[in-house]
Design brief:
The complex is a heterodimer.
Chain A: E1 5-8, E2 13-14, E3 19-21, E4 23-26, E5 31-32, E6 37-39, E7 45-47, E8 52-53, E9 58-60, E10 67-69, E11 74-75, E12 80-81, E13 85-86, E14 91-92, E15 97-98, E16 103-104, E17 109-110, E18 121-122, E19 126-129, E20 135-138
Parallel strand pairs in A: 1-4, 2-5, 3-6, 4-7, 5-8, 6-9, 7-10, 8-11, 9-12, 10-13, 11-14, 12-15, 13-16, 14-17, 16-18, 17-19
Antiparallel strand pairs in A: 19-20
Chain B: H1 2-10, E1 12-16, H2 33-40, H3 51-54, E2 55-57, E3 62-64, E4 69-71, E5 76-84, E6 91-92, H4 94-99, E7 109-110, E8 118-122, H5 133-142, E9 147-151, H6 171-180, H7 183-201, H8 218-227, H9 233-239, H10 253-260, H11 271-275, E10 291-292, E11 296-303, E12 309-313, E13 322-325, E14 334-339, E15 343-344, E16 349-356, E17 363-368, E18 375-377, E19 381-385, E20 389-392, H12 398-401, E21 407-409, E22 427-431, E23 434-443, E24 451-462, H13 478-482, H14 505-510, E25 525-536, E26 540-541
Parallel strand pairs in B: 15-26
Antiparallel strand pairs in B: 1-2, 1-25, 3-4, 5-6, 5-11, 7-10, 8-9, 11-12, 12-13, 14-16, 16-23, 17-20, 17-24, 18-19, 19-23, 21-22, 22-23, 24-25
Classes of the chains: A mainly beta, B alpha+beta.
GO cellular component, one term (chain A): dynactin complex
Keywords (chain A): Cytoplasm, Cytoskeleton
Protein name (chain A): Dynactin subunit 6
Amino acid sequence: MPKECFAIGKRAVVCQDTEMKGEIDIGSGTVLHPQCKILAESGPIIIGSNNIIEENVTIINKQPTPLIIGDENVFEVGCYVEGSKIGNKNIIEAKARVLGNTSLGDNCVIGAVCSTKKDEAIPNNTVIYGDHHNRRTQTASGGVSFNK
Amino acid sequence: MSQQIDARQRSYVHYYCPCPDVSKSNNNTGEDEEEDIVESIPDFDVNSPRIHFSTFPISKLYFCDDCHQIRCPRCVQEEIVCYYCPNCLFEVPTASVKSERNRCARNCFQCPICQNTLTVVASTEPPPPQPSASSNSSTSTTSGAPYYLSCGVCRWDSQEIGMTFEKATGLALQLQKTEDERPDVKEFDHLKDHFEKHLRLSAPSTTLPSSLLSIPGISSFSNRYGGGGFTHPQQKSDDVAKYNNTIKIENDDNLVHDLVQLKDVNQITTLTQRMNQLSDQPYKVERLQPQRIHLRTKRVKRCRSCRHILIKPEQKAQATRFKIKLVALNHIPKLTITSLPKLFLNQSTEIILKFSNPLYEEIIVDLALKKDETTETTEYAKIKLLAPHFNITPYNEVWEYDEQDFNISSKGRPSSTASAPKPDIGIYERRGNYTSVKIEITPLAEVDELKFPLLVTYANKVNDNNDNETSGDAPANDSSTAAETVSSDKPNTDADKPNTDADKPDTDVNKPKTDDTDKGESTPTTKSLFFWTVIGLGPVVNPATVKPPAPTRSPLTNNNSNVAPTRTNINSGKA
């Protein structure tokens, strides 16, 4: 059983109703909304700074290697993240799923209800969207700033 | 588990609209009617291909009060009320619809990649690093000089193709110039100029009602038959000079060269993307441009036989209500499958069908599988209706607000409000305004989809005796009701045949009807209607070949809920 240990940075907001297990490191300025679950079951989870983790998000690490999440990501409501590494400035939209050993680059968008495959390395600036949830295209890097 | 969800998703109850049936009883009159009508109920063939386009879920059906018939989307007549843009909800006046080619003239564009609506975005400058707040915010909101379009779904933006705008409004006008420069538009304008004087010389078009203007080509149609008969056909062809193309489009040889060298299929446009840009239908993704959004229409729907309005929406684009809303959901019983266990070959299962009554009067329902029978054996299944005759209590709005149990009678006990105190065999439950009945099914063949037809006849008493309304159709379906003893008033049954113009409701009352021993007691008239339904039950599985379910769920099925690892809710919110 991993020991329970939370290191929470300054100006981070962790709401009371969250469920956190295992070794978790939360960077500064990150906001965890109520009802989210950060479960570092087999290995630690290291969350960077200025992330927004909305309600009902499940971030789970089932591998012994640490799950590193970068800065300025947005995890929208209801998503499920199980990858191995998440870069910066990504947007994982509502009810999206990042599965298995997938690693996400920077500035990606996983559209609503879309999911990745189990063992992929998704390059930077990828957008996954659509009904058949595997259409990908590249954005121009830069694009829209963090205006949400 | 997912298979169970699949079976439920594939189960349905569809209603059949008989509009494609031309019934033989149209021309019969008098006493012969009785025998002919009985034969003329067509046997419903569930496997005929017409089922695919003649059956509809009840949500798509309308109901004509005058004809007392179901109307489907295929047999209603439509007239256009207004044109509006689905994005900005602007009502476009009918005159400018044609000139704008049925598209929105304002800022509404469609993403060329994913066909969703584009939003106008100001390109903001990144805020300077000093922490002074007020000046930052003002500069970032007002500096939107180069505006561009951006898609929220696929994150495409028009900067990728170099399309930017000076102002945030009137984008269509700004694009007008580039649109007019397109070769196909220029060529079309030349053609129009060339033929215009000949168009003016030919007979003027007859004035048409505006509702018909929506049909393209109708003015030329009226030309041909209204005024064209008088002009000399020779005269027309003599005047038209030969037309020379003015625009030359050169062959794009580079395109073939580029296509041959492609390595990634994502660089080619999909068929949908090409079909949305009909002017040049490019192969390369870079040449796709945002198109203006198509306008939509609000339409009035009429019954095709009596011209009664069934649906009349409000004129305003934002209003979603209807002035007149005669939908089938409010008039005929709604059938739903409430319990559908897995169907195994040669195993007898019971499904439960729920009939709910939307009317304010009690109705009496008769079920049949063929004309007369309540059990049937086909090569696919053996079906037995356990409750072929029952009533459903009326709808009462109070029940919507009433949280407590408003059981009229439960599971087998006879209800006090029912007029027929029959033993309730086969009735699963009676509550509120619905009754659930059991049907026993034994599948005999392993099919992908087991479906069977069900003939539903219902009759309700109407207490107004001013109009002898029996909807003008010759009676039918007496075979199924005559076979059962009905303790309430016998219904004046109506056939489900299209109401011809010759038949008027009044004349039918005078014709001798079958089974009409209740002609004396006519003060509460009964209205009745029958309709066929197709009940689809999903797949039939052979229990011998069923594999044991896999222990872990595949994570790629994203219709399952999120995996919740453990249920222990250790609320550890310590800082």
